Automatic annotation (TrEMBL):
InterPro entries: C2orf69_mit. It comes from Betta splendens (Siamese fighting fish). The keyword Signal applies. Keywords: Signal. This is Mitochondrial protein C2orf69 homolog. Residues 1-19 form the signal peptide. PANTHER family: MITOCHONDRIAL PROTEIN C2ORF69, UPF0565 PROTEIN C2ORF69. The gene is c21h2orf69. GO terms for cellular component: mitochondrion. It holds the Pfam family C2orf69. The keyword Signal applies.
Length: 336
């Protein structure tokens, strides 16, 4: 989270009052479909050619839609009559962003967003493309940006207007993600698309998925962890879950006063048993803040409990010798 972490925790009433003049959400007014990213968007000419916005893509419930940003791997052939190399046909990474992050053109219109344009969704997609060069990169834009800065993932989990979560075991985050990816692949003409539902025969050969959450976006990963037991027991969802190879938590944070990291032992036992690669990359901005000491404690409990159940989470504290800063909070996206 940024300086607007919470009402009453670093987010002053004065800031709220000023922001109320622009309280409308940043819902897209463009029609559903695919379009190339603007020439003002991030990256080189090659990256811009591979970067596409898919607007109002539906999930498993038609009324639940998200805008997606897709960066195709460099090895993906652009010609419709030429199949891309096998190594990138069905390999994907999905990213859930934090507060203030939005499409570059929208961030540039907001005073608080303009100063962080280097971390727009387009820029992050390009960074992730370098981190995962042989994968399709999908950036999921939050369904609502309250006051143009608080990311709210209402399609994935229950949360308040500031995006603070209320986790449950059956909200349907995995179902929404699967259908969202399936419909996105169809719109973008991605080879061997995932089917929106079904068992193992509905998943393309070689399909694999990595999930990455940054800051507020980690609430989506937390929700999926809460749903993991039921999803693994579901014969239709289990084959999809088995295709998720890794989950990355990047400096998780949200405005609530607890549950920044999953702490339920039974839920973490299920995560440990899943065999997923678990990565946590944090900075002093989140885990060493004395005003929110529970974040560091919960992170420690998350790691220790997983290890207790036999998992081997990969953990790293970045910028440990530098003062906590928002800049380093964002930089973890480059450094993980």
């Amino acid at each position: 989270m940024l300086t607007f972490r919470a009402v009453g925790v670093g987010f002053t009433l004065i800031a709220v009052a000023k922001a109320m003049t622009s309280a409308a959400a940043t819902a897209s007014c463009e029609p559903r479909g695919l379009r190339a990213a603007s020439s003002r968007d991030a990256g080189s000419g090659s990256a811009r050619q591979r970067l596409h916005k898919l607007l109002a893509v539906p999930g498993n419930v038609p009324s639940r839609v998200n805008d997606l940003l897709l960066l195709r791997p460099e090895t993906d052939a652009q010609s419709s009559d030429t199949a891309p190399p096998k190594k990138c046909r069905s390999r994907h990474v999905v990213f859930f962003h934090g507060d203030i992050q939005n499409f570059q053109e929208e961030m540039s219109l907001q005073p608080e967003g303009a100063q962080w344009l280097s971390w727009s969704l387009e820029q992050v997609a390009v960074i992730l493309g370098r981190r995962f060069p042989e994968r399709y990169v999908w950036v999921v834009r939050a369904s609502r940006m309250y006051l143009h800065k608080f990311s709210c993932y209402h399609n994935f989990l229950e949360s308040n207007m500031f995006g603070a979560p209320e986790h449950s075991p059956d909200y349907g985050a995995f179902h929404h993600l699967r259908a969202l990816l399936s419909h996105g692949m169809e719109l973008a003409n991605v080879p061997n698309p995932l089917q929106p539902q079904g068992g193992s025969n509905s998943i393309p050969s070689g399909f694999s998925l990595i999930l990455v959450g940054f800051s507020k976006g980690c609430v989506v990963l937390n929700q999926m962890v809460h749903e993991l037991g039921g999803a693994r027991a579901d014969p239709l969802m289990s084959p999809f879950i088995k295709c998720i190879s890794a989950m990355y938590w990047l400096d998780g944070g949200h405005p609530g006063g607890s549950e920044t990291w999953v702490t339920d032992k039974q839920v973490l036992k299920e995560l440990a048993a899943s065999g997923l690669e678990i990565h946590t990359h944090v900075t002093p901005y989140e885990v060493c803040d004395p005003m929110r000491a529970w974040v560091g404690r919960e992170h420690g409990h998350f790691i220790e409990t997983l290890e207790e159940f036999g998992a081997c989470p990969i953990k790293k504290l970045h910028f440990a010798d530098e003062p906590p800063s928002i800049e380093n909070h964002f930089r973890v996206i480059q450094e993980f």
